[in-house]
Design a protein that fits this description.
Elements: E1 5-10, H1 19-29, E2 35-37, E3 48-54, E4 69-72, H2 78-81, E5 91-92, H3 97-115, H4 118-126, E6 142-146, H5 150-161, E7 165-170, E8 180-183, H6 184-194, E9 197-200, H7 214-219, E10 230-233, H8 242-250, E11 256-259, E12 279-281, H9 291-306
Parallel strand pairs: 1-2, 1-3, 3-4, 4-5, 6-7, 6-9, 7-8, 9-10, 10-11, 11-12
Helix pairs in contact: 1-9, 3-5
This protein binds NADP nicotinamide-adenine-dinucleotide phosphate and glyoxylic acid.
NADP nicotinamide-adenine-dinucleotide phosphate binds next to helix 3, helix 5 and strand 7.
């Protein structure tokens, strides 16, 4: 099948996306293959057989007419799905233990933070106030996980192991030991009515945009020691209606929100989320893509593909994830 060039295209100024690091990792993992960082004025686009990309801008991959596979360097492919000129070749997403473990850490951290009343306790510390409130058991809360794929299913299991009641919601029916699973539009209300903490690990697609909205918040369960329900979004910013979240926090429909992702990233300086007392904010780092792990994953897929094997974790473009 030939030893075509692997082109790397990374559009991010964040520290963990340093293009030179990705280049060094792919050079090490793909011996004998030419690896180039885009943009590269000397490159003949016809030489490129593989592209490893993060957030390519619409049109940036269109010139590579001999492309065989596109590897997205993260789990979410929404940036690629928005590109009408994306070459019609298999698109592979990340689904690896390293990224899953990182997301599980984030979800467990934030669910525990709200369950263990950390916002109140930090405020008490600052006020030098020794006033512990009643602390309930994990089994007093139901965590609802939206999205039971690679990341959602792992988080659901970890929370279950800690003693939380866990319910989940996905597009198609699922069976996971110890987790009550709901699916489809018909299953959404029953799922929400049980959830005290709602964790969103959905992909961003036309069907899921703004799924975290006021109607959904109003249906969450308020009959737990937590009182007002809490949301945790580590999927994508456009899954949430941001004015609805702010209103719901201010009128008590929601008790708190942990948000890792936002409609506009980096979050603008004047966003009210930065200083909202009920918001725990992280800068889209719930689950970093690790260059060591992911370069190995992509290199192994290329080797398998070139010896006639099947690619893994290929995106279904009709579903959008
Ligand atoms: P995945 O394995 O593809 O799982 C997606 C889940 O969402 C599946 O269970 C799917 O249902 C469900 N789903 C999709 N559309 C739905 C709909 N319309 N209604 C109900 N359920 C729907 O994806 P993943 O690897 O778990 O990743 C999930 C997302 O996490 C990514 O797309 C990305 O946006 C985000 N992410 C964020 C970070 C971060 O640092 N913040 C890091 C990595 C990933 P089925 O099972 O029925 O298909
Ligand atoms: C990160 O946001 C990812 O999609 O992997």
């Amino acid at each position: 099948m030939g030893n075509g060039t692997l082109a790397i295209l990374v559009n991010s100024a964040m520290q963990n996306w340093l293009p030179s690091r990705w280049k060094a990792r792919f050079d090490a993992e793909c011996p004998g293959r030419r690896v180039v960082l885009l943009p590269d004025g000397a490159l003949d686009p016809a030489d490129v057989h593989y592209a490893a990309v993060w957030k390519p801008r619409p049109g940036e991959l269109a010139a590579f007419r001999n492309l065989r596979v596109i590897f997205n360097l993260g789990a979410g492919v929404d940036a690629l799905m928005a590109d009408r000129s994306l070459p019609d070749v298999p698109l592979v997403r990340v689904s690896v233990g390293d990224l899953t473990d990182r997301m599980t850490e984030y979800v467990v951290l934030h669910v525990l933070m709200h369950h263990r009343q950390e916002l109140y306790l930090r405020e008490s510390q600052r006020a030098k106030r020794w006033e512990p409130k009643y602390q309930w058991a994990a089994s007093a809360l139901t965590v609802g996980i939206m999205g039971l794929g690679t990341l959602g299913a792992a988080s659901a299991r970890a929370l279950r192991a800690l003693g939380f009641r866990v319910v989940g919601w996905s597009r198609s029916a699922k069976q996971i030991d110890g987790i009550a699973c709901f699916h489809g539009a018909d299953g959404l209300d029953a799922f929400l009515r049980q959830s005290n903490i709602l964790v969103c690990l959905l992909p961003l697609t036309p069907d899921t945009q703004h799924v975290l909205n006021r109607d959904v918040f109003a249906k969450l369960n308020r009959d737990s020691p937590l009182g007002a329900p809490v949301i945790v979004n580590a999927g994508r910013g456009a899954l949430q209606n941001e004015p609805d979240i702010l209103r719901a926090l201010d009128d008590g429909t929601l008790g708190a929100a942990s948000l890792d992702v936002f409609e506009t990233e980096p979050l603008p300086q004047d966003s009210p989320f930065w200083s909202h007392p009920k918001v725990v904010l992280t800068p889209h780092n719930a689950a970093d893509t690790d260059a060591d792990e992911i370069s190995k994953y992509v290199a192994a897929q290329i080797t398998r593909f070139e010896s006639g094997g099947a690619l893994e974790n290929v995106v279904d473009r009709t579903r959008g994830y």
